[in-house]
Amino acid sequence: MRIRSLAPLAALAVAGCLASKTDIQMLQTDLQTMRTESARGDSARQAQIQQVLAQVIRTNDSIRTVSARLAKLQSDVQNDHYEMNRNILTLQELSGQSQRRLQELRGAMEERGQTAPAPAPASPTAPPDSVRASTGAPASTAGAPGPGQLFQSSLDQLRRGSVGVARSGFEELLRTYPTYEDAPEAMVYIAETYAAERNQAAADSVYGLVVQRYPRSPKAATALYKRALVLKSAGQSAAARASLERIVREYPRSDEAALAREQLRTLGK
Predict the structure, then answer these.
(1) Per-residue pLDDT band at 228 (split at 50, 70, 90)
(2) Structural domains in the chain?
(3) pTM higher than 0.90, yes or no?
(4) Angle of helix 218-233 versus helix 255-268 axis, rounded to 10
(5) d(CA 147, CA 173)
C-alpha cells in the first residue's frame, strides 16, 4: 500500500527532472544564439573599424602628398623670387656700368675740349650763346672742369672711400650745373655719402629731396628704395613700409618696384 502511494510522487519528480533538462537545453540554445549574434556583431564592427582605419590611412597619405606638393611649390616660388631679384640686380649693375661708361666718355670729351686749341672767331651768322645754351647742354666755365668730369671724379672719390671729397664734388656739380641731366643721380650719391658716414637723418633728408625735385626721374624710385633701406636699418618699419608702398604705387614699372614688393613681404613677417 505504501509503494502505491509513493508512485505518483515519483512520477512527479521524474516529470520535474525532465522539465529542468528541457529548460537547460533551451537556455543553452539561447546562449548559443546570443553568442552567434554577438560574434556576427563583433565581426561587423571589426569590418567597420578596418574600413575606418583604411580611410584614415588614405587621408593621411593624401595630406602628406598635398603637403609635399605645397612645400615644393613654396620652394619653387622662393627660387623664382630669388632668380628674379638676381636678374634685376644684374640688369641694374649692367645699366650702372653703361651709365658710368657714358659719364667717363663725357668727361674725357670735356677734358679734350678744354685742351683743344681755341676755335676761330665766330662768323656773324653764328648763333648767340643764349641760343646754344637753350639746347640743354650746360656750358662749362672757361678753365673749369665740365659736369661730366666733375661727376666722374666725384664718383671715383666715392669708390675710393673718400666720401667727404666725393660729396663736395657732387655738391659743386649741382651748384655749378643745376640743369645737368645726371643731377638726380649726383644727389643720390650725396645721400649715399651721408649713409656711409652713418648720418641717417641727413641721408634720409637728401633722398627725400631727390623725389621732391625730380619726381619723374628714374632716380626718384632709386632714392625712395634706398631711403626705405635706411629707415628699415634704423628700426623705423612704418616709415620704411610707406616708402616701399609709394614705389609700388607711383613707380610700378621701375626695377625698384619688384625689390620693394619683396621687402614688403619681409616687413610683413
Answers:
(1) very high
(2) 85-112+145-268 (1.25.40.10)
(3) no
(4) 20
(5) 6
